[in-house]
Design a protein that fits this description.
2 domains, 30% strand, 3 helices, 3-stranded antiparallel β-sheet, alpha+beta, 91 residues, HU Protein, Chain A, two-stranded antiparallel ribbon
Length: 91
């Protein structure tokens, strides 16, 4: 399912216009993104959680030349499926 399909499903189930459904979905995604940019955890009970994982700097290797390269510290988003979602998918 992509964003457009999600908007269509919300439009149908909530009996609202496509523009209103698109606005609701956009607000939802914007707030999730802002929270994660601040380093906060986003948890949707029964479905999943999103969190930011911090990585320290480390020494890597350029695969082409073999020379050592210092990789800067970074923060990456992660997804963890909830118990109910796991059970539902595995049925």
């Amino acid at each position: 399912m992509n964003k457009l399909e999600l908007i269509s499903a919300l439009k149908t189930k909530a009996n609202i216009s496509k523009a209103e459904a698109a606005n609701v979905i956009q607000i939802f995604f914007d707030n999730m993104s802002e929270a994660m940019a601040k380093g906060e955890r986003v948890e949707i009970r029964g479905l999943c959680s999103f969190y930011v994982k911090n990585y320290k700097s480390y020494t890597g290797r350029n695969p082409k030349s073999g020379e050592k390269v210092t990789i800067k510290p970074k923060r990456l988003p992660f997804f963890k499926a909830g118990k109910e979602l796991k059970e539902r998918v595995d049925y």
